[in-house]
Design goal:
The chain is built from four helices and six strands, in the order E-E-H-H-H-H-E-E-E-E. The protein is of the alpha+beta class.
Length: 152
């Protein structure tokens, strides 16, 4: 057994990737414990994320998830993409996102990354991926773009 040959999926190079290819990430139901854990890590103590009565006064049925918490569900490392390109991955170089709908405790999130652009350079290439998160009602709650630099 050669540990360097142990792979989750076959390795692929930049030229093997295709625009439109989808990498679904695991779905997750986000609960109050997730909210509390993210609040602890982020140090974001705004009451919109933890004070039920404050949220009700604003017209929300419950606290809202932190936007960055929702964005974190699009982390490529939660899915197969980094395994597909293996050691050719140099780094995650850019992210942008629009938060389109509120996420509440009990919502189930369905993140996906879809290759939207492949830009070859001399020795590297940039993989642009549309990052989306839908909720259990099929509503788009986040839409954005990730960019990854990889060796050719």
């Amino acid at each position: 057994m050669d540990p360097s040959e142990h792979r989750v999926v076959p390795l692929r190079g930049f030229s093997d990737l295709k625009v439109g290819e989808v990498f679904n990430l695991p779905s997750r139901t986000i609960g109050e414990a997730n909210f509390a854990a993210f609040q602890t890590v982020s140090l974001d103590n705004h009451p919109i994320h933890y004070d039920v009565e404050y949220c009700k006064r604003l017209g929300y049925p419950a606290p809202l998830a932190h936007g960055l918490q929702v964005l974190s569900f699009t982390a490529a490392g939660a899915g197969l993409f980094p395994h597909v390109i293996g050691e050719k991955l140099i780094g995650f170089i850019e992210v942008n996102a629009k938060f389109l709908k509120a996420v509440f405790p009990g919502d189930t999130l369905y993140p996906a990354l879809t290759i939207s652009e492949l830009t070859p350079q001399r020795t590297t290439g940039i993989v642009a991926m549309r990052a989306t998160v839908h909720n259990q009602k099929s509503e788009l709650v986040l839409d954005g773009v990730h960019r990854y630099l990889m060796k050719l």
